[in-house]
User: Which sequence fits this backbone?
């Protein structure tokens, strides 16, 4: 699971959870892959993402060093910033660990890089 | 991958190497998308609509990953594959590794659970691609639900495979959502080779004419 994906994942569909975001990351195995740097794509994604949640997630896996707490101004033309974001969003991968719901503490396991967001029947919201 | 564009035939030939479901589950309607259909669909999206290169793509019901892998080969920025089934995702992960593709991420999730509220996924992707369940195995309407989730997750377009026999129904649905619905190609989808529908004598089935389902590649936008 890449942090790009983590930035879109929430546990809001669990019964009783309102926001469920960001999910805390407890990682036991992390790898870094090599993905082609595409500044145009990264810039467009940054505009859609929740930067504070990315900053928190980076902290969870001890990768926040050198990462600005807020988005740099005119980041589209700041290659250094885009490269840091590219590495964090696309190259860092959580292979094993857990995602933890900030409201209930419910754990969603990550196995072989795939987070399991399935719920037990009694966790599903009835009114939806 | 080099930036030289793959031709449709080349893409199709690469996609022949994507492993398919070991034991397809009838209830989940796990018909693999054939390399031919996948290549036709992706090549059309790429050349006619220019909606793959550098795009953030979501694949709903990723299965063994043939559409996702093809989309990655045609230069999309990222692909996120959603599926409910652990076994399909495991095969998909192996395929992705085999193809040495690094920009596909997988999530095990019930796509229908995103129908009422897709949370932070809302409009995060540019384009959705999918070969949804047909909704003929006690899960009537699931194809429409996949489309609805696709529309709420994306900003540009949803591309989806459907039985031609459901075309008029889907057109009406699209109207209800104020969406534009267009069939961009009509193909034959060979089902009999993969799911054997509980018949005992498989040899017999292999000797009969495979059942073809007339399939539409649909393009839906809001």
Assistant:
């Amino acid at each position: 699971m890449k942090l790009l994906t983590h930035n879109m994942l929430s546990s809001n569909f669990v019964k009783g959870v309102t926001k469920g975001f960001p999910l805390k990351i407890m990682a036991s195995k992390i790898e870094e892959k090599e993905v082609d740097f595409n500044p145009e794509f990264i810039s467009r994604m940054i505009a859609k993402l929740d930067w504070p949640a990315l900053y928190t997630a980076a902290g969870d896996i001890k990768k926040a060093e050198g990462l600005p707490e807020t988005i740099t101004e005119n980041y589209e033309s700041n290659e250094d910033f885009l490269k840091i974001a590219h590495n964090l969003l696309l190259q860092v991968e959580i292979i094993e660990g857990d995602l933890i719901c900030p409201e209930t503490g419910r754990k969603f396991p990550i196995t072989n890089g795939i987070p399991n967001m399935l719920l037990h029947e009694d966790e599903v919201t009835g009114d939806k | 991958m080099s930036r030289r564009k793959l031709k449709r035939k080349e893409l199709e030939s690469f996609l022949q190497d994507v492993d398919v479901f070991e034991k397809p589950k009838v209830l989940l309607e796990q018909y693999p998308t054939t390399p031919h259909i996948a290549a036709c669909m992706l090549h059309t999206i790429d050349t006619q609509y220019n909606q793959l290169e550098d795009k953030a793509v979501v694949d709903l019901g990723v299965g063994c990953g043939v559409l996702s892998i093809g989309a990655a080969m045609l230069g999309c920025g990222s692909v996120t594959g959603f599926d409910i089934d652990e076994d399909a995702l495991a095969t998909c992960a192996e395929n992705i590794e085999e193809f040495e593709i690094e920009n596909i991420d997988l999530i095990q999730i019930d796509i229908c659970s995103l129908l009422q509220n897709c949370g932070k996924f809302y409009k995060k992707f540019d384009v959705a691609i999918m070969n949804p369940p047909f909704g003929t195995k006690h899960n009537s309407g699931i194809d429409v639900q996949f489309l609805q989730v696709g529309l709420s997750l994306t900003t540009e377009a949803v591309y989806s495979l459907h039985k031609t026999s459901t075309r008029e129904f889907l057109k009406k649905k699209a109207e209800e959502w104020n969406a534009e619905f267009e069939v961009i190609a009509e193909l034959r989808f060979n089902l009999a080779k993969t799911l054997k529908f509980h018949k005992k004598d498989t040899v017999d089935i292999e000797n009969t004419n495979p059942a073809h389902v007339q399939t539409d590649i649909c393009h839906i936008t809001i």
